[in-house]
Amino acid sequence: VLDNTPFYAESGGQVGDKGELRNEAVRFDVADTFKIQADVFGHQGEVLEGEIKVGDTLNALVDVSQRTDTMRNHSATHILHKALREVLGDHVQQKGSLVDATKTRFDFTHNAPITAEQIRRIEDIVNQEILENTATSGKVMSLDDAQKTGAMMLFGEKYGDEVRVLSMGRAGNAGHYSVELCGGTHVSATGDIGLFAIVAESGVAAGVRRIEALTGAGAVAWVQQQRATLHRIIEALHVAEDQAVEAIEKTQGETKRLSREVTQLKTKLAL
Predict the structure, then answer these.
(1) Cβ of 92: how many Cβ atoms within 10 Å?
(2) d(Cα 116, Cα 22) in Å, to the nearest integer?
(3) What is the mean pLDDT of the chain?
(4) Which of 5, 41, 120, 188 qualifies as a cystine partner to 9, CB 3.0-4.6 A?
């Protein structure tokens, strides 16, 4: 435990920072950061060199790459939340989230699977906000003043007397697209998110759906993997890309016909 720290402690669905604490004699690998009390952060990890003692002065070095990827995913989650309400309806409410360097996972109230067309519209909205590349804004204010801004508040969440209001993106030219109470780390502009791609949608409980999505380099890698898979399918079918679906449907139909024919022949042989 340090007297002060730049490390973010796990909170609000965002995982804790990783990094290193060190001086000339000590090197401590930080695998996780968590809250012991509201204003007391614990750094959990392994002493790699030397020995840590009370009173030591240490340099705190956050893993910038992991922090940056986590920020992309967290900021995308805010825009995703607003996009879900726009596409599915105002009944959508956040029921849980997990944001780390690899992905964002978002649980929300909705009573039906999301269609492919709805997923496309949600992705379009989020990526349009990314392309706008508008600056994000975080302001600390009283809870009463925050409520007057119309900021999204999570039902059941306990807030202090002072809160941080995070505003992000623009819908046309009429103010910020997403305004929520949040104490997490975020990108300085929506363009920093890079790319947003939904990779999974499922039901996790009655009336609760889950979306998993990727941003930045993770989203690019996923798109490249999808393209590589498509190319292997095209090569196996020996058709052009725009004929792949038709070729698969034709192959499936032929397979069913041959299967029926085999069954009929087996019956004749048995008789």
Answers:
(1) 18
(2) 49
(3) 92
(4) 41
